[in-house]
Amino acid sequence: MELNRRTVIAGAASAGLAATAYGAGSASAATGSPGGRPVREHFGTLADGTRVYRWSLENGGTRLKVLSYGGVVQSLEIPDRHGRYANVVAGFDDIADYVAKSPYFGALIGRYGNRIGKGRFTLDGKAYQLSVNDGVNSLHGGAKGFDKHVWDVEPFTRGSDVGLHLHYTSVDGEMGYPGTLRTKVTYTLGRHGEWRVDYEATTDKATVVNLTSHVYWNLAGEGSGTIEDHELSIAAARYTPTDPGLIPTGELARVAGTPFDFRHAKPIGRDIRAGHEQQVQAKGYDHNWALDKGVTAKPEHIATLRDPRSGRTLRIATDQPGLQFYSGNFLDGTLTGTGGRTYRQGDALCLETQHFPDSPNHANFPSTVLRPGRTYRTTTIHTFGA
Ligand code: BGC
């Protein structure tokens, strides 16, 4: 259900379409129109009868489709150097697949991106036990994280921007986390086709929070094969090594002289089989890079991903201190994506801007504590080129 439901265009032109356009002058096509109001269509229904909607928006050459379930980016299309469009994110066609087997495809992650060791932390002298869903650890918010809830979605246009506000309130104690967390995430497509994600949250009790987006990228097109020839650069001289359960040890290790050195762009496949014990343990890259810039007041450029064949480029700017680069290690050929092809290991990758995993248990990591009266606010901007 959306907040602030606007005028439904029920005229003859849109009556026969699955999509419902909102606001005067909206295009009635399900794909949205460049710079026009986002368009809504029914995507599927959950077992409890809740309807899940898909919103389509387009601006500056980028086409985005977002589900009310998990705030999932189900499709993101951008042109290559010849103007040919491809959907560059992994996803499913069917809501049942998202519910039953999604490895967080395109989803919003909360309350805590990545892992918290043994699902335990202490805050202000009080011990908390979180939902444990990854061996003995808590991953991406626990068994029912923000990716598995239906969000209230409110479309907007503002100047040359087009976007969606997504709201979800997590009740006190949900998945073991203290405090009622009121969350608002705004997806904006700007006039140059950039996709901006603004996160906001408030709480009524001291808590920890670390929100992120779990898009799986393949700039050659989802389902087109490996991302090992994509070139990646990350502005980080250090990363956080992990134990076998992928919990940071607390060390901030130097990347120099290791396969983790992405300070200059290199193909992902170049060092992925180097046999570094950290890679063997994670089956590839699945680590948090401690960005050189640290926490910043404004988003700063921290990573570039480029597919040399298509020329498609993704540049990421954030105010967050960390970047989780996950090379799709656990994709195993059992999931079939929107294009009808299966996803195998390394067929897509994630670049999750975040605070460091397990921060609540490491005093030397930037703090993830949010207190009543304060607003958690972070921004990540994805800019596309070809
Ligand atoms: C984590 C991986 C995990 C994946 C789930 C990533 O953010 O770092 O360890 O398997 O999410 O799909």
UniProtKB/TrEMBL annotation:
<dbReference type="InterPro" id="IPR008183">
    <property type="entry name" value="Aldose_1/G6P_1-epimerase"/>
</dbReference>
<keyword id="KW-0413">Isomerase</keyword>
<keyword id="KW-0732">Signal</keyword>
<keyword id="KW-0119">Carbohydrate metabolism</keyword>
<comment type="pathway">
    <text>Carbohydrate metabolism; hexose metabolism.</text>
</comment>
<feature type="signal peptide">
    <location>
        <begin position="1"/>
        <end position="29"/>
    </location>
</feature>
<dbReference type="InterPro" id="IPR015443">
    <property type="entry name" value="Aldose_1-epimerase"/>
</dbReference>
<dbReference type="InterPro" id="IPR047215">
    <property type="entry name" value="Galactose_mutarotase-like"/>
</dbReference>
<dbReference type="InterPro" id="IPR006311">
    <property type="entry name" value="TAT_signal"/>
</dbReference>
<dbReference type="InterPro" id="IPR014718">
    <property type="entry name" value="GH-type_carb-bd"/>
</dbReference>
<comment type="similarity">
    <text>Belongs to the aldose epimerase family.</text>
</comment>
<dbReference type="Pfam" id="PF01263">
    <property type="entry name" value="Aldose_epim"/>
</dbReference>
<dbReference type="InterPro" id="IPR011013">
    <property type="entry name" value="Gal_mutarotase_sf_dom"/>
</dbReference>
<protein>
    <recommendedName>
        <fullName>Aldose 1-epimerase</fullName>
        <ecNumber>5.1.3.3</ecNumber>
    </recommendedName>
</protein>
